[in-house]
Design goal:
This protein has 619 residues and is of the alpha/beta class. 31% of the residues lie in helices and 21% in strands. The strands form eight sheets. It has an eight-stranded mixed sheet, with helices on both faces. Strands 5-4-17-16-18-19-20 form a seven-stranded mixed sheet, sandwiched between helices. Helix 2 runs antiparallel to helix 3 and helix 12 packs across helix 14. The protein binds 5'-O-[(S)-butoxy(hydroxy)phosphoryl]adenosine. The site of 5'-O-[(S)-butoxy(hydroxy)phosphoryl]adenosine (WT7) has 23 residues, from helix 10, strand 20 and strand 23.
């Protein structure tokens, strides 16, 4: 039962400028009865930034409590930021944004690595009622441009450059390219605020803990081009900004942010979350799913560029006054000890990561884990994709030393927070399953600028229900087992991609006439991309072309979408009406000759050709 009463009690724990005047919940989930809508506490006004910062500092007296331990890419590059310090910086940056003309309802794009300023930027948007649209810093300039245009963002916040492991990412250059592309499409972004991150050392900051840390590997080699009249340095603007800022009081149903997720048609969907419901939902799921206690040190390894980071690095932990680790690096740099040494260093109590990271580390054996104490760990979580029993058992037996419950949390960008999960200590565990909880206030409200797409994608298949797009099996004990996507979506290392977006990136290459992309099992990524390409006349398939196609995908989408296999396909199995049979292609990729019914294939000879020319190794 959706319990307005249950959530009503929870709402009392938050600050409301004006209380909810009317029904606590109104909604229609049934397309046959009219427009789909969801309204929690409409008419009540609040501010999420005020709730997660000001109240913690002033009412709950948590000002001196550490909000984040920041751990940079390079071990030893660290800083910490208290609730009070975070509030001051957020107020300053809110004033900066207002001074740049950003108002309630405006969209602000954020393209940054995992540094404290990213949290400051998003909370400042929330404070002044602007919608943040965070684009993962691993996405290409093309993807950034597409997202800026889709929600017509008026300002971009980015960073000079950063290291991801050994790799230097010149983010400003990518941001410049994106803004150039926006300009070409008649959408000039008027302002770009740049955080000096690799160049921090030059700023002479780092003496006080409230200031940014010195970066050891500062990189004088990074050449930053500067666009006069558009680019502004973050540190210069902050110096001039006042540290008090009245929050914008927002309706509970005002939009809080947009976050893009892949859609099965190829064009990403701008998932819209609203202030009140999202706040209640992430605060509550964080508290119960991780069995939160005031002295916890929480660590979610997800990047804030994904929903997991929005909900369980920023909003959920801060709403509870928690201390978290904010990690810029990767699990394998400088070596595979990194995660466990951070766990010991900060005495992490609750640890939340993705199955792909677990599978990656599993390959290096138990020793890098067991040589660390890990005595502080109490609860382990996973998210992003189904976890295979081997990985679950290793996580439980080796990482958690059989002491720590595992919460396998099933949810989506669209759901805002956890949907199916065991509760630690309360639910007997089975590897790989997740247990149903409750309908929720954190559900998305629309696709930005396209409500019809929202209705079609999530509500048309089964009128009266929200459809996640995942298959699921319920066992005799009532446990739900997620079996994977039922649409044309792929899950690579916990990141959703649509076959259509990769295919359209491939056919944009002049040599490619047609492309079909399927998911293929991969020991670490869970799934990887296996692409079939039909070439235009006059072009020949070669390793050089394969490289070009990979590059093309990296540039159009981002490195996460780089395929592992590209096969030359002079013909593709199609139905007589011309629909590509991906089901058959998936089997070909796996060398599984049990194809089921192929009577609808227009030209069966293409199948045997494809079988005999399969890619046998990762390219
Ligand atoms: C899709 C949502 C939720 C944040 C990260 C991904 C898959 C997610 C699980 C899980 C099995 C899972 C589903 C879902 N998924 N968590 N615990 N077990 N599958 O967010 O990019 O919106 O992807 O990820 O397929 O629909 P997202």
């Amino acid at each position: 039962m959706v319990s307005a009463e249950f959530w009503g009690d929870i709402a009392k724990e938050f600050y409301w400028k004006t209380p909810c005047p009317g029904p606590f919940l109104r909604y229609n989930f049934d397309v046959t009865k009219g427009k789909i809508f969801i309204e929690w506490m409409k008419g009540a006004s609040t501010n999420i930034c005020y709730n997660v910062l000001d109240r913690n500092v002033h009412e709950k007296k948590l000002g001196d409590k550490v909000a984040f331990y920041w751990e940079g890419n390079e071990p030893g590059e660290t800083t910490q930021i208290t609730y009070h310090e975070l509030l001051v910086q957020v107020c300053q940056f809110s004033n900066v944004l207002r001074k740049q003309g950003i108002q309630k309802g405006d969209r602000v794009a954020i393209y940054m690595p995992m540094i404290p300023e990213l949290v400051v930027a998003m909370l400042a948007c929330a404070r002044i009622g602007a919608l943040h649209s965070i684009v993962f810093a691993g996405f290409s300039s093309e993807s950034l441009c597409e997202r800026i245009l889709d929600s017509s963002c008026s300002l971009l916040i980015t960073t000079d450059a950063f290291y991801r492991g050994e790799k230097l990412v010149n983010l400003k250059e990518l941001a410049d390219e994106a803004l150039q592309k926006c300009q070409e499409k008649d959408f000039p972004v008027r302002c770009c605020i740049v955080v000096k991150h690799l160049g921090r050392a030059e700023l002479g900051m780092g003496d006080s803990p409230s200031q940014s840390p010195p970066i050891k590997r500062s990189c004088p080699d990074v050449q930053i081009s500067w666009n006069q009249g558009i680019d502004l340095w973050w540190h210069e603007l902050m110096q001039e900004a006042g540290d008090e800022c009245e929050p914008e009081w927002c309706d509970a149903e005002d939009p809080l942010f947009i976050l893009y997720t892949s859609g099965s048609t190829g064009k990403p969907k701008g998932v819209v979350h609203t202030v009140g419901g999202y706040m209640l939902y992430v605060a509550t799921t964080f508290k119960y799913v991780f069995d939160f206690h005031a002295e916890d040190v929480f660590w979610c390894t997800a990047d804030i560029g994904w929903i997991t980071g929005h909900s369980y690095v920023t909003y959920g932990p801060l709403a509870n006054g928690a201390t978290s680790v904010l990690f810029e690096g990767i699990p394998t740099y400088p070596d595979v000890n990194r995660l466990w040494s951070i766990v010991d260093k900060y005495k992490v109590t609750k640890f939340y990561t993705a199955p792909t990271a677990i599978r990656l580390l599993m390959k290096f054996g138990d020793e890098p884990v067991t040589k660390h104490s890990r005595a502080s760990l109490q609860v382990l979580g996973t998210v992003g994709e189904p976890i295979n029993p081997e990985a679950w058992l290793w996580y439980h037996q080796v990482v958690g030393a059989q002491r720590c419950p595992i919460v396998d949390t099933f949810w989506q960008t669209e759901t805002g927070g956890h949907m199916l999960t065991p509760l630690p200590g309360a639910t007997p565990m089975k590897p790989g399953s997740a247990v149903f909880k409750q309908p929720w206030p954190g559900i998305m409200r629309t696709v930005y600028g396209n409500h019809e797409r929202f209705e079609t994608t999530y509500f048309k298949k089964f009128p009266g229900y929200y459809v996640t797009g995942d298959g699921c099996r319920r066992d005799q004990d009532g446990y739900y087992w997620i079996t994977g996507r039922i649409d044309d979506m792929l899950n690579v290392s916990g990141h959703l991609l649509s076959t259509a977006e990769v295919e359209s990136a491939l056919v944009e290459h002049e040599a490619v006439a047609e492309a079909a992309v399927v998911g293929h099992p991969h020991p670490v990524k869970g799934e990887c991309l296996y692409c079939f390409v039909t070439l235009c006349d006059g072009h020949t398939f070669s390793p050089k072309l394969t490289e070009e196609l990979k590059k093309q995908i990296r540039e159009k989408i981002g490195p996460i979408a780089t395929p592992d296999y590209i096969q030359n396909a002079p013909g593709l199995p199609k139905t007589r009406s011309g629909k590509i049979m991906r089901r058959v292609l998936r089997k070909i990729a796996q060398n599984d000759h049990d194809l089921g019914d192929t009577s609808t294939v227009a030209d069966p000879s293409v199948i045997s050709h494809l079988f005999s020319h399969r890619c046998l190794t990762i390219q």
